[in-house]
Amino acid sequence: MGSSFTVFFDGTYWVGVVEVGEPDGSVRAARHIFGGEPTAAQLWEFVRRDAGQLIDAAMASPAVPPGAGPKEPAERVNPKRLARLAAKEQRRTGPSTAAQAALAAAMQASATQRKLTAGERRRAAEEQRREVKAAKRKARGRGH
Fold first, then answer.
1. Contact 7, 14 (CB under 8 A)
2. Order of all β-strands in the sheet with 14-21
3. Structure letter (DSSP) for residue 71
4. DSSP annotation of 92
5. Mean pLDDT of 19-35
6. Which residues contact 31 (CB under 8 A, 6 or more apart)?
7. What stretch of H or E contains 100?
8. What does the domain layout of the chain look like in residue ranges?
9. SS3 111
10. What pLDDT is attached to residue 10?
11. Which residues, including other chains, have CB under 8 Å from residue 103's CB and lie 6 or more apart?
12. Is residue 29 pLDDT above 90, yes or no?
């Protein structure tokens, strides 16, 4: 069960992504948004203070099975093109595609949970309003 922590610039913010590999080959991931570019001292402080929480968040996220990343092309690829693709992949500094899929699955799960709790809160508020309205109606009917 290997893990890695990658810090990269996503175009807007500096983001840290922790990827935790499972023995069956699946990947779990969580991210932390730093905002501005973190210094080495800030990264060490983050790892010392908050890395455990980030790993716990990754372990709580849904696992993405192996092979969820991009598929290999079925046709034969020109060797020069293959060399360019390999060089491009080595220059890439972001998280793996499996980690991106794990983050997307975690965001989808949290969005679903958020929708459920919002619906429950809305139904509870409507019930409360109905009870207040019924109590007022009852009080008016008794001549109070």
1. yes
2. 3-9, 14-21, 27-35
3. P
4. -
5. 85
6. 15, 16, 17, 18, 95, 103
7. helix 97-141
8. 3-68+92-141
9. helix
10. 78
11. 17, 29, 30, 31, 61, 95
12. no
